[in-house]
Amino acid sequence: MSDEWTTPELVAAYRDRERPAEAARERMAAALMAAAAERSATVIPLRPPARRGRTIRSGWLAVAAALALIGTSSYWLVGARHQAARGPADMLMDPQRSEPAQGVVAPMANEQHVRAASDSGERAASDSSEQQAASDSSEQAARDSGERAAGDSREQQAAGDSREQQAAGLADPAPRRSARDRRPVAADHPPARGEQGDPVLEELMLIQRIKDALDADRPGEALAAIEAHAREFARGSLVEEREALRVVGLCGTGERERGERAQQAFVRAYPRSAYRERVRAACPVAASPEGSATID
Amino acid sequence: MMPLAEPPAADAPESAEARAPALMEIYRAHVDYVWRIARSLGIPADAAEDVTQEVFLCVHHRLATFRPGSSVRAWLFGITRNLVLHDKRSYARRERRLAALPEPQATPREPDATVRVHQAAELMQAFLDELDLEKRLVFQMTEIEEMTAEEIAEALAVPLGTVYSRLRAARAKLERFRLRLHARDQRRPA
């Protein structure tokens, strides 16, 4: 049988066998996409404050990881118009409590998250088609999928927070979560809007534009992008980031009054935000909770 | 602006949109190649996924340093080799694996069509393992990866003539390998 081996036959057989299995290919692809998303978020972070900039970093990394997971899971969420008001902003780890390595995507470990994410994503998609943006029901959905993905059930306070924040005039404040165990749950938050393309990515790109503009010292452009985000993603997943960037943008460019108002509104709406130190540092005047709630 | 993690600030302005597709395109097109190169450099099958992934993460970070117009495969080879060489243990693994290599032999008992493919793959593997690394890489890049001699020369950083001479030597060895197989089959009729 093996008497006549031609080189092409040997080569074809070898090529066919000696390659990663389909599952391995997918795992690697998922890890790469996660890394790509992480990179895209890490290359344009908030401008560093005069001080205390470091506390923000793990927060941005966590956002990146969360976005990556969401992006991956959204493949399984085609068509789902999930209005859950929770997003990667919630996944931010409190930099005060986080370890330095947190939020960095570890490719092989990430794979499990991605799997869990897609799993819970499917469930969330089927669960959530009729859900409205009311924070109660979104809380329910998030809890539902959150439990499946990571067994995280520390979210009871969120609904109350949400209402309070909405009353404070900020678009779609994201419910607070405990600082730990966020990453695995990150991916079960589907995109808030899904008209075309991947809304989460679109939103990310817009946030990036803001950061780009801030980094390039183009405050006008940054504020325009912030307004665009506020219009297009009024209830998006990155509202918290947007509002943090708004404070940084306004305060950084001399619009002190508006900056301080935005800062106060931010601190009130996101009292435990990972960005709070950063936001406070942006406008050195202490932010007191009884300022105006207007975000302009 | 301080970058967050290790990514250099220099190539910051690229957007994820510009980056990710390029990265994923490279990945889809060359993942098998990187995998096989890693295997040839001594990475066992069970570790090849890690190494391959590592390579592409590296690609991701270094995408900006790729010189347009040069060979992607040559570039990928450089990254893979550096990663593998960096890991001394993989060298030890390679030595052990080569030392433990059995004689090339056909494996019996399977449906005919698959057994033949299976055997062919085994034989190719056995032949490649017989070659020294230099010839193996040239042979593999030529025959299996279908790279041009220029690409191979670029990847291995050797003159074109060296590529051809190694290829000639490897092909001669393949002939001898075939003869040996043939002789064995004659001795041991199925």
From TrEMBL, chain A:
The keyword Transmembrane applies. The chain crosses the membrane at residues 59-78. Residues 113-199 are annotated as: Disordered. It comes from the Bacteria. Keywords: Membrane, Transmembrane, Transmembrane helix. The keyword Transmembrane applies. Residues 113-125, 141-155, 181-196 have a biased composition (Basic and acidic residues). Residues 126-140 have a biased composition (Low complexity). This is Uncharacterized protein. The lineage of its organism: Bacteria, Pseudomonadati, Myxococcota, Polyangia, Nannocystales.
Automatic annotation (TrEMBL), chain B:
InterPro entries: RNA_pol_sigma-70-like, RNA_pol_sigma-70_dom, RNA_pol_sigma70_r2, RNA_pol_sigma70_r4_t2, RNA_pol_sigma_r2, RNA_pol_sigma_r3/r4-like, WH-like_DNA-bd_sf. It comes from the Bacteria. Residues 123-174 form the RNA polymerase sigma factor 70 region 4 type domain. Transmembrane segments: none annotated. CDD domains: Sigma70_r4. Pfam families: Sigma70_r2, Sigma70_r4_2. Signal peptide: none annotated. Coiled coil: none annotated. SUPFAM superfamilies: Sigma2 domain of RNA polymerase sigma factors, Sigma3 and sigma4 domains of RNA polymerase sigma factors. Residues 26-93 form the RNA polymerase sigma-70 region domain. Keywords: DNA-binding, Sigma factor, Transcription, Transcription regulation. NCBIfam families: sigma70-ECF (TIGR02937). Belongs to the sigma-70 factor family. ECF subfamily. PANTHER family: RNA POLYMERASE ECF-TYPE SIGMA FACTO, RNA POLYMERASE SIGMA FACTOR HI_1459-RELATED. This is RNA polymerase sigma factor. It comes from Nannocystis bainbridge.
